[in-house]
Amino acid sequence: MVDITGEVLRIIPHDDAAPVDLIVADAFQYWRVSLWDDRVASAIKVGDVLRIENARTGKVASRLHAGKYTTITPDRLTSPALSRMHAQNLTVLAVARPEKGRVCIAGINDRGEWIRPQGVYVPDVFPQHGEERFRNLCVSKIYVDAWHGRHTRREDRFFIYGAGIVHTLSDTERKEFLEEHVDTSVDSVFSTGRSLGLIKPRILHVYEQSLPDKSHETYIRFNFRDASGRLYRGWSCRCNAFYKLWDEMKRRHRFTYRWRIHRYLKKNRTYLAIGLTYTDYGAGNLKYGAYPMIVGVHVVKEVNRVMEVRTVLVEPKTEENIGAVARVLKNFGFHDLCMVKPTRIGDKAIAVASHARDLLAAARIVDTIEEAVENASIIAGTTSKRGISMSKHLRVRALTPYELKTKVRGREGVLALLFGREDIGLLNEELKRCDLVVTIPAVEEYPVMNLSHAVAIIIYELRNADSARNPIKLASVEDKERLFEHIQSFLDEIGYKEHKKERTMLMLRRVFGRAELTAGEVRTMRGILRKAEWKICNP
């Protein structure tokens, strides 16, 4: 007989004929206590601190039975339960659908080991009060012990207690974690004695199936190829989150939900957490000695990166416009605001900016356009004129906001978007510095728009200027300026006519601006110029 004092951390569900099991713990250890008196059990709640005297020990030291000679009285603890026990941080990769009140949880601990806590029930995962304790791609703090069940697997541990979610992985952390732990194939997981793993397959087909004896319940199955190219058919899915996605898509898109889900899985990076479930029937005939299934589905969205947009206001004259521009940028998810010699920014600008005050406070203020466009890949100037002439023979076609979006789509870098003064706009000398010119096609009778309105229209178009999966990285402004300086010196060297130089350089700026040169292309062109210069000097 033993006496213990501890806090009730869990009340394990049971069948009518079974006793009530409690997980009771002090600061140093835990016990699983079976209560055979229903009247006593019904009065106990999670969080109670109990003094249990004259309990009988079982085959395992941590297992106790409270019989008719056992007394249970309220008590108190001097130290919090489990405070001296070692906890593990489990990054959860599987929360399976509940089956007969049990929930399969699996993940990877701090040491990179796969862990499958055993004896987890619905109240342990989805408590009636408070947040759920386990969720896919979250880190949960758990206390586990050695598993003493009938079927022993390398990953199995007895589940003592789950303290809840301590961290939710960010998008970047999810990608890194999944890529770090992905296995090369199904065989690379199960042929080495593991019963859990993570694969990155090519999804071929996802469908639902009703079993003959359970026509009321639908099961989701996958056909896929793993990284080795081997085909697997009819694998059952038990991922609770994926069933919720399936049901929601089915509710919203009655006739097209299967196609939509399949497209969603193929369009993005899909990882499957796979596992083996033991069975007493026909296990010897199964390849892995157990039934394989999908216990977790993880979809990492392929983020279509938006080309970074820097909004540059050149000498804005009214506070209200500055505040309105800040608000517009925040409306559409842009945060890079730069101003060249703005008017004083006071209470009016802050009031109009409203919830974008932080963006206004973080805005850069510079003295020159050169400082504002530093490190930019493309400089686009705005004008109310649909076609402007920089010289008698050079006419620049201004792009619409939609055409600008098309231009920058699939490009990686910084787009500096220049907006001129409220009264006179951008000067011709300033427009000459631009690679592209943009105009909003308003009516000819009154084409000039308010500054904040013009920003809103162009930014609205650019909000979804998503790039390709392998974006093209454009040359920086500094790289292109060095190229133009090199061309200028080359024209001097070959004796190009002086009165033609300015217009020729402007034309080349426009041509190269439309060409969207990469850093490699700029280096190649400068290499050609150097070779030509050497040939001229060494005929």
What would you note in describing this structure?
The chain is an alpha/beta fold. The strands form seven sheets. A six-stranded parallel sheet has the order 20-19-18-25-21-26. A five-stranded mixed beta barrel has the order 1-2-3-5-4. Strands 7-8-9-11-10 form a five-stranded mixed β-barrel. A hairpin with a 4-residue loop joins strand 2 (20-25) and strand 3. The longest helix has 19 residues, at 519-537. The chain is elongated and about 110 Å long.
The DSSP helix count reads 16
**Mind summarizing the main beta sheet?**
6 strands, parallel
Rg, Cα atoms, Å? 34 Å
Mean residue pLDDT: 86
Query: Which residues sit in consecutive blocks of at least 5 with pLDDT less than 50?
Result: 390-395
Query: Strand percentage, roughly?
Result: 25-35%
Report strand order across the widest sheet. 20-19-18-25-21-26
What is the helical fraction, as a range of percent?
25-40%
Q: Name the overall outline.
A: elongated
* Strand elements, count: 27
Helix/strand-derived class?
alpha/beta
Report the span from N to C terminus: 106 Å
